[in-house]
Amino acid sequence: MTDRPQTKDAANSMWGGRFAAGPDAIMEAINASIGFDQRLYAQDIRGSRAHAAMLAAQGIISDSDADAIAKGLLTVLSEIEAGDFPFKTALEDIHMNVEARLKEIIGEPAGRLHTGRSRNDQVATDFRLWVRDQCDAAIAGLQALIGAALGQAESGADWVMPGFTHLQTAQPVTWGHHMMAYVEMFGRDLSRFQDARRRMNESPLGAAALAGTGYPIDRHATARALDFDRPMANSLDAVSDRDFALEFLSAASICAVHLSRLAEELVIWSSAQFRFVSMSDKWSTGSSIMPQKRNPDAAELIRAKIGRILGATVALFTVMKGLPLAYSKDMQEDKEQVFDAADNLMLALAAMGGMLSDLTANRENLQAAASAGFSTATDLADWLVREAGLPFRDAHHVTGTLVAMAEDRGCDLPDLTLADMQSVNAAITDDVFNVLGVHNSVASRQSYGGTAPDQVRAQIARWKEVLA
Ligand code: ARG
């Protein structure tokens, strides 16, 4: 190690020799974040423009320097957006790349931009702005998805289908009710992103390295300029916490779980064994060998996305655990996880929204399946309680006996005769057949939040108001 050239120039130069250059190259490789944090360029430039304007307003730098900085930063912005910005790994990250280029463009005033701030509050600000945008994107994606689910619910509010527990036919429900269950889940996801956004909307800028600064800066002004509600109240906290990212990832993980469950149902429902739904060609793929196949690839991929999104969440929780205050370089490991999780969540939300809008539910198949599997056995037991005065446990037993009888004969409950029924319990009358049909069954479930079409329509109307 002592043989290594002592100056950075020597260490980085082409002639430094393999031994000396090796470790430096590896140091540069492990240290640099420009490969990924260049995604923060717009936020970085926005933050710097707000900071420079505030420095001038406070008399900390001259108006002419602030002007030069503001214009120069716009030039940098257009270079990056045009794709001809020379990103340099030696300059480590987006913050130093932007500042170094600004210096090339405007010269000396560039050196005044970093007055009263540090890369620690700079990166915390940039990243908060970026994650805040992703909250907005998730909110928009969820609103579109909820709209698609509401559309499905509305067109099939009274279509009957089997409701399952343990993936065994349980009781008939309505298609609208099933779709509205997802509306509720995605609605909670929506509110989680709204909550997270509200909590993260405070500005770290001006916390400087960790302790604040002796310059007479105005943190309220920069907070306003960046559309934050207020500056963060503690400079140590401002540079050292990433709970806003953890909260975003947590909300994303829960949302991805919900997406995976709907995706799984679409995979099952579109199979030849179920045929509950037909997926549009737009959202299906074929097989190169089996001509009959229509594969629900998008649904399968959405089902899988939770893997990487939850992985990112666990990764960042693990990075943050046990870090002493304030900033530690460990925190540079926050970005790739959040970038990947956000990209994949937005893609999954968009794909699910599109798939659901273009989905055709097969009303006849849903209804046929709803009637099979003794799905109205509970209705029969309830009838015995209501009309024949049996205790529920006895009614359950009588019904079980009748189900076994029907199973023996290879028929459904409504196919048994009144005499068959009376042979098990004499109190049964012809009226029982009114509750054995699936439509009567769902219509009877009028309890708040139940599957009766009236209840479902009331929830659809409520959600339409919420979204409007
Ligand atoms: N690239 C760094 C990050 O992403 C920026 C902050 C660096 N601060 C420092 N004191 N080295 O976290």
Kindly describe this structure.
The longest helix is centred in the first third of the chain and has 37 residues, at 119-155. It is built from 19 helices and six strands. It is elongated, with a radius of gyration of 31 Å. A hairpin with a 2-residue loop joins β1 and β2 (168-174). With 468 residues, the chain is mainly alpha-helical. The strands form three sheets. It has a two-stranded antiparallel sheet with strand order 1-2. The protein has a two-stranded parallel ribbon with strand order 3-4. A two-stranded antiparallel sheet has the order 5-6. α4 (41-57) packs across α9 and α7 (119-155) packs antiparallel against α8.
Search tags:
mainly alpha; two-stranded antiparallel sheet; elongated; disordered N terminus; binds arginine
